[in-house]
TrEMBL record:
Domain of life (superkingdom): Bacteria
The protein, known as: Flavin-binding protein dodecin
Coiled coil: none
One Pfam entry name: Dodecin
Length: 68
């Protein structure tokens, strides 16, 4: 039997929501092990002062829980 933990992470990208999600998963994967499922829960765009766009993707990321 396995137990999984779910956390929210937000990735950002200047190119797309998909790239923002990939960045969030990649960065979280550096410190979390046994990643299982990532579910997109929200997407938005921040418009900078000069009109540049920053795509943000919030995901719920699950990973296998290992008690200490």
């Amino acid at each position: 039997m396995s137990v999984y933990r779910v956390i929210d992470v937000i990735g950002t990208s200047a190119s797309s929501w998909e790239a923002a999600a990939a960045e969030a998963i990649s960065t979280a994967g550096g410190s979390l092990h046994d990643l299982r499922v990532a579910e997109v829960t929200k997407q938005d765009v921040v418009v900078g002062e000069t009109g540049e766009l920053l795509y943000r993707t919030r995901i719920q990321l699950s990973f296998k829980y290992k008690p200490e």
